[in-house]
Amino acid sequence: MYSVAKQLGMDLSHCRMEKGPNGCARVQLVDGDRVFLPGNQGGISREKPPVLTELDEVYIGEYDLVHTSIHSFMESQLPVMDRAGKFISMDFSDRYNEEYLKHCCPYIDCGEISCGNMEESEIRRVMEQIIRFGCRHMVIATRGSKGALVLVDGRFYEQSPCLVKAKDTMGAGDSFIACFLVNYLDGIGKAVDFSEKSGTRGTVKAEDYKDMLIRTSLYRAAVFSAGQCQRDGSFGFGKTVELTPEDLKIMKGA
Predict the structure, then answer these.
(1) Global confidence as pTM
(2) Which domain holds residue 105?
(3) CB-based contacts of 44: which residues, under 8 Å, 6+ apart?
(4) Number of independent structural domains in the chain
């Protein structure tokens, strides 16, 4: 992972290095869809989660978006991220509970949940709950082949999936979230109300522009995540590894 990130030109100067197993998940593909098998529960990251320094705070402040997740084990650092970052995003996956949401939501601008086969009424209830618990701006709910729901400043939006024959659905939800937020944050800073003397032709209100921006960002996210489903492992830089006896035992019992 480190060598690939370097190859892509990413700045790794603030990465933490600890001795121990990298977090990993075991996944089998069934007709292109991922099936999770028991992993190593986050590896060394769970045992020694990063603690942010003053230098990290300055570094974080240089970016428009800071993203973390329930799998990052950095809940204690949320106040630091909130203090340093412009826009804080957190993915709760499908492993959250009410107390966890109450703890995390006051520090974030956007929360994400993975909903699978949840009923839409329940999805909307949880999204509104996340806002009520303190999330400041929006909630994204990914639903796989059922598309996505987004709640932005009290307004719900729906997005159908761009259905394709998937090689591997790994990372589909993550890529949807990333594409939506990048497009939305890139555009929302340009929202302005025209003066009354400008007239009323075309789009002249920031609220109307914001509505179009959300819809366009959702469309782009659906197309982008569909493209990711055409790549093995989503990331596209797979490495061949030798399966351990534990791997084989777990896969045999799946």
Answers:
(1) 0.91
(2) 43-195+202-235
(3) 18, 19, 20, 21, 22, 23
(4) 1
